[in-house]
Amino acid sequence: MPEIIPALMPKTIEELRDKLALVRGAARYVQLDTMDGKFVPNVSFPYEAKGKLGQMPGELPFWEDFNFEFDLMVEHPEETVGAFLSLGASRIVLHAESSEAHLLLRAIDEIRNFDCEAGIAAGNDTPLSALEPFLYRVNFAQIMGIRRVGFQGEPFDARAISRIQELRAKYPELSISVDGGVNLETISYLAEAGADHFVVGSAVFDVGDAKGAIEALAQAMQ
Fold first, then answer.
1. How far out from the chain centre does Cα 11 lie?
2. Crossing angle of helices 210-221/13-23, nearest 10°?
3. What is the pLDDT of residues 112-169, one digit of tens each?
4. Partners of 65 in the beta sheet?
5. Which pTM does this prediction carry?
6. Which domains can be identified in the chain, with CATH numbers?
């Protein structure tokens, strides 16, 4: 079933709590863009500096209201994936460029063995063939709707359309998520191309009415 997933990149757990409150009751899943300052330039919770994982909270805010999807935009996620599983992740996204394939496959097995869903992503400059070693082990693939990974408010990268179409044609049963560049103008084209999960950042949180934005996106997708 198509799904709108608000995306947050908080610097602190206080900011995370504030952003979650804006979409509480309007979204079942939220994606936390988790950045180490090495794989991408930005740093977000729970990282404190480039590559330094900060102290983990005992539980996430509003844990009873959301399923948390962590998009691990970090180098060598196989080294830290256990920490996010312990936080209660429902889904974890790994990036094909972030480590060696055999290490990412090992991390995917760890995720799946924890009864958590695993996704694999690739930037639009990476051939789709880079995803293929993982597709038989993951629950979904994530296509990037922007060129610069780890930023919100970036312009839409139209290459996402053909990449989704190609994946959908080759893997008709595959769940496909698109992250970045999703807004009222693009979501219908992305849905028509074959995406079924829509990760949305600025089009939800920068409009003044996050819950209303989610409702409008859902209507535009139909």
1. 17
2. 60
3. 999 999 999 999 999 999 999 999 999 999 999 988 787 777 888 999 999 999 999 9
4. none
5. 0.95
6. 3-221 (3.20.20.70)
